[in-house]
Each structure stands twice: as C-alpha cells, then as structure tokens.
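One thing: mind reviewing this one?
=====
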Amino acid sequence: MNKIYAKSLAVLAGAMIAGGCSSMATDTTPSADAGSTAITAAELEASQRRISELESSLKAKDRDLANAEARIASSASSASMDSMDSGNTGLMPSNPKPGECYARVIIPAKYTTTSEQVLKRAAAERIEIIPARYEQVKESRLVKEASTKLEVIPAKYETVEERVLVKPATTKLTVVPAVYETIEERVLVKPATTQVVEVPAVYKTETETVLDQPARTEWKRGTGVGTGSAVAMSSATQAVQRFGDFKVIETRVEDTGDLMCLVEIPATYKTIEKQVLVSPATTRKVESPAEYKTVKKTVLKTPATTREVTVPAEYRTVKVTKQVRPETTREVVIPAVYGDVAVTKLVQPATERRIPIPAEYTTVTRNNKVSDERTEWRPVLCEVNMTRENVAALQTSLNDSGCCQCGPNRNECQIDGVMGPCTLKAAQCYADRNGLSSGDKYVTMDVIRALGLKF
C-alpha cells in the first residue's frame, strides 16, 4: 500500500510539472491569431481537470489505505483473542464428558482473501487534429494593360477652276504603329500555410514483483512406524532437518505418539506488467510553401507615332483643288483587359483538441493468514460408539459426500461397518474440504455432526 501511495504522489507531481511547463511554453510563444489563444485556454483547462482527477484518485487511495490498516489491526486483534481463548490445548481435555473419547486433533489455519487495485496505465491525453479549411475564390487579374492608338483624320479639299497652282506643296502624315511585347508574370495562387501534425505518445512496459502469499510456519505430522510414547520419544531424539522441500524449525511428540514438525514455508511472489508513459503526445508544425502560377500578358513597348512626308506642289491651268481642312490625327484609348484566376484562400486555420484518457487499474488478490494451525482436544469416534451400524452409516454419508476414493473406480467406500484406512482417508478429506478438525488415525465428532449423524 505504501508503494501505491508513493506512486500516486509521483504521478500527481509529474502532472503538475507537465501542466506548469505547458503553460510556460504557451506564455513565451506570442499569439498570432485568435485560434492560438483558444488552444492555450483548452490546454490550461485540460491540465486543471487532470490535476483534479489525480487529487480525487489520491484521496481514494488514502481512504483505501486507512481501511486496509483497520482491517489488518482487526485481524491481528481477533487472532490474538483466538489464541488467548484456546484453553483446550493442555495435556488433558479441559471438560471431558463421560462416555466420550478424546484426541488431540489438528485445527487448520484460517486465511482471508483481500484485493487491492494497482495502477496499470497512467492517465494520458489523445490529441485530435482539426485540419485547416480553405475555399476557392475567383479574382480578376490584369491580362493586358490599357493603351492608346492614333487614328488619322484625312484632309478635306474643294475643287475650283482657275489658272493657278493646281496643287500646292503639302505634307502627309504617315502613322507608325505602336509596338507591343508579351511578358510573363508570377501570380500567387495559394499562400504559404502551416500544418499541425500529431506526434503520438510513447509508452514502455515495466514489470513489478508483488507478494502473492506471505511466509508462514505450519505444524506438519511426521511419518513414523509404530505407536506409543516409547516409539515417539525414540523418534524425537533424531535430528530432523528437512520436511519434504521445507526447512524444519522445531519438532515435538504428541501424546498420541505422533511426531509433529514446525516447518517454514517461504513467501511466494508473482510478477505483473504495467505500462508507463515515457513521453506525452505532442504536435509539430509543418510549413507548406506558397504556390505561384505564371501568366502571360501583352504590354506596350513603344506607343504609336506619326511621320511627316512632303508632297511637292503641282501647277496647271486646270481645276484646282484647294485644301479646306488639313489632315489631322486623334488619340483613341484602348481599355485594359482583365481575366478571372482561381485562388485558394485560408478560411479557418488548423487547430487541435485534447481528449483525456483515464488511468487504468488492475486488481491484485492476496491471501492473509488470520489464525495459525494448532492442535486441540476434541471428541472422537472410539470403541464406545464405534458400532458396526454407526460405522456403516458413516460410510454411507461419506459415499454421498464424494470423498471416498476406494473401490474399482476409486470413487466409493465399502459399506461393511468396519473402520478401515479407506474410511479414515474419506473422513479426513471431508474435514479438510469443510475446514473441520481432523486426524489420520481417527474420526472427530465434528465430522460426525457435520454429516448429520447422531451417535
């Protein structure tokens, strides 16, 4: 529980540091438009919400820790009371009844199963990119500039008869046309843009070893040959170091002649896996260059002009044509030519939305010992009440319970009214299954009463 408490504090501190760093980075970056300001406010709100969730989780962990400590204290108190109240562990039964037989039997240890939640994956965020929105618009662009041209207005003459000069010397204007040239010009079609790309979060898997069953000691019955105190004392003199795979701490001899060994059972552990956030999800900006289009247009290089040509005079006695109005020119304006060009314009810039991902927890189950295994004086079935009818009734009930493992199919006890090894093993199996007192050489009255028998 202390490890979980420390991990929760570490996660809360990391989240507060990350929120502070993000707010500092936001403050140092100047806001170019309203979109960047909205993103900063959203990040601040998400950080505050994440801190609130972690504080609530930490409070829940504190409550669970307090409850677990209270349960452990209660279990220890009840175990000590049970050990104090067990006054039936002496060399003789405390309150024997006439007509009943007693034996020191094994009371199995009691365990309780507790579960606790362990952080499997820390809370994180998922970033969703909202792409920028563009639209195509048409703009009018200049294709050919406005220009002027000269238009010739011819001279006006009248014919008269006289013997004079027929045609005086005159001048004639010749039009030199304007000169145009075609040039290429780059026109902006799509401005440079910046695209926000998501960089996903990085996780790593860590393993942690947790306690499955604590170390404990248990009294195990040793295997010996013969019965009686002489044989028991002779066996006890021998040094017993190992009991199967377990180390023997202490040995003792029961009044029944059985050798009891206190063995040390080591604790067992199991390994669990969990995912830890290495780096949170971020975004990076990718700049797209502007796009241009090359268009051709005609521009005036040299404007139109006139050139004066001299015409010599003619004399004759004929009809004379007299000039009434000389030849002139006038300037005519040619308007500019425009064309429509499709242009992509940014309507709304790209933004991001952060979606919080809650933390994941896993449940770990543990077995805690409430009371140790012990021996007590209990009434047992003996010659006083071990009649053939009573033994046959016991064998029938054990057959119904499914604990018999004899016969051709290893699933029954022979109902013959004789207390044999098969009946004793079946009674011990029933006692172990139901948490009752038991022994391998006798049947306790707890088993008789649990089977509903009265004798």
